[in-house]
Specification:
16 strands, elongated, 6-stranded mixed β-sheet, Pectate Lyase C-like, Alpha-Beta Plaits, alpha/beta, 2 domains, single chain
Length: 254
Amino acid sequence: MPATPAAQTRQTFEIKSAQMNLVALLVKSANLEALSEELAKAFGPAGETPDFFDNDALVIDFSQVPDNEQPRDLVKFTAFLKSCRLTPVAVRGGHPAWKEFGLKAGLAEAEQDVQVSKQVTRPVAAKETVIQEVIREVPGPSTMVVDKPLRSGQKVYARGCDLVVLAIVNQGAEVVADGNIHVYAPLRGKAMAGARGNTKARIFALQLEPELVSIAGVYRTSENPLPKDIHGKTAQIRLSEDGQEKLLIEALKA
């Protein structure tokens, strides 16, 4: 009796090609300990934007690591990335040893033309600014409204939408949105708009006195004080449109 082709006997599954969006971590140094520290400050559980990622699939790109730097084991590093709500799935670029270590850590090899939704660059040294390179923007289509004061330790995240706050945002409180943030009261805590890459997002505040403000990962802290003609005034915050990725903070007049 002739054998039945295997493809005709598989009733429970099929194997098909698929595509998915990936976040790319562009590594610039083989010092993974230092890189982990910087990532933890920005995206770790106790970092500035711990909810920036949502278990996004990640490809680790070593194409910009200098050739004279020795590749390192990736097992511990990939485990750390999961604490930043990232899911490492592949490696690409750089010295061939990076691929070898990646395979040992359970990662696949990604081609250079893999579909990438955004690049995550290592934060710069300046305390008041971190630049997030965004390739695909994600607009916020709807609105969340908060009408109660936010105390220190409280946090509101408007995932996939704008955020409107009708009461004070006290020091130690955080408001985060994938779209715009409107605070029709004093803003004294942290406000992070365009949290998942919307570079067109803006922050509006009736009384601007923030600990930190951020648009699409570019942020400024109170260590760099606002000008006197803006501090405590009605103002808006947006990203410049000249390609420099810097925050513009402007007073609004009635």
